[in-house]
UniProtKB/TrEMBL annotation:
Residue stretches spanning the membrane: none
This protein's name: DOG1 domain-containing protein
Upper taxonomic lineage: Eukaryota, Viridiplantae, Streptophyta, Embryophyta, Tracheophyta
InterPro entries in alphabetical order: Seed_Dev/Stress_Resp_Reg, TGA_domain
Pfam families in the cross-refs: DOG1 (PF14144)
Start and end residues of each DOG1 domain: 9-242
A GO biological-process term: DNA-templated transcription
Length: 248
């Protein structure tokens, strides 16, 4: 059992490590497209599609793994303590990408305000049209509602433990088979919740970068999201090392 568990954890950790490496590779390609071919929309769309496919492949694989042991994905040993403190159903909130759009619009508009007032246009994310802003706001509202639904389901699963202490704790003479069946149902419920959350994460990002933003704006957003995740992982790793702990 211990050897099997170790092998399982190794596979889960390797999946995350490969995903981090993939993000680094995608980031480099996106940055090259942004700096060398900012007006080549065909090339930018290719990079966007590639990055989304990698994200989808990662989430699909971990959803398969979660059916083996969903508990591991809700307390991941491969994440730093800093990253773990921000987790929502084993990942970032889908609305984070939308909030990042708002933040990028504000910061880039401020940095190029003088050019903007002179009528100079770059076509980047600082120049969202009124129609785009309406679409982003609509997506934000819908995504918040879906997040809330999933959060309530997570709360319900957690409250089941307190509502049925004897059953959940194996008291009252419950047999080993019954307890294993109960744990198996928990794994199934959590795996389903993770799958729904990942579907929302991927769907939200896909709508932003393929339906609302221009190719140039979409690449800017993807660059920002990957930079944030990679930096958080690095900051968290450094912090854990300074505290005498390390990420598995």
């Amino acid at each position: 059992m211990a050897a099997s568990s170790t092998t399982q954890q190794d596979r889960f950790s390797l999946l995350f490590e490969e995903w981090m490496q993939q993000q680094k590779q995608d980031l480099q390609e996106l940055l090259l497209g942004l700096t060398q071919e900012p007006k080549n929309e065909s090339r930018l769309r290719e990079l966007i599609s590639k990055a989304l496919d990698h994200f989808k492949t990662y989430t699909n694989t971990r959803c398969i793994y979660a059916k083996e042991n969903a508990f591991a994905f809700f307390s991941p040993k491969w994440c730093t303590s800093f990253e773990a403190s921000y987790l929502w159903i084993s990942g970032c909130r889908p609305t984070m990408a939308i909030r990042l759009v708002y933040a990028l619009v504000g910061s880039e508009l401020e940095s190029q305000l003088e050019e903007f007032l002179r009528g100079v246009r770059r076509g980047n994310i600082a120049e969202l049209s009124a129609a785009q802003l309406v679409a982003v706001n609509s997506l934000h509202g819908r995504t918040v509602m879906e997040e809330d639904k999933l959060s309530r389901k997570m709360t319900s699963l957690q409250e089941d433990m307190a509502d049925n202490p004897k059953k959940e704790g194996g008291g009252g003479g419950s047999g080993g088979g019954e307890r294993e069946d109960m744990v198996g149902k928990k794994v199934e419920s959590l795996a389903g919740l993770l799958e729904a959350a990942d579907k929302l994460r991927v769907g939200t990002m896909r709508e932003l970068v393929e339906e609302i933003l221009t190719p140039l704006q979409a690449v800017e957003l993807l660059v920002a999201t990957k930079q944030i995740h990679l930096r958080m992982h690095e900051w968290g790793r450094n912090w854990d090392l300074s505290q005498g702990s390390s990420t598995g």
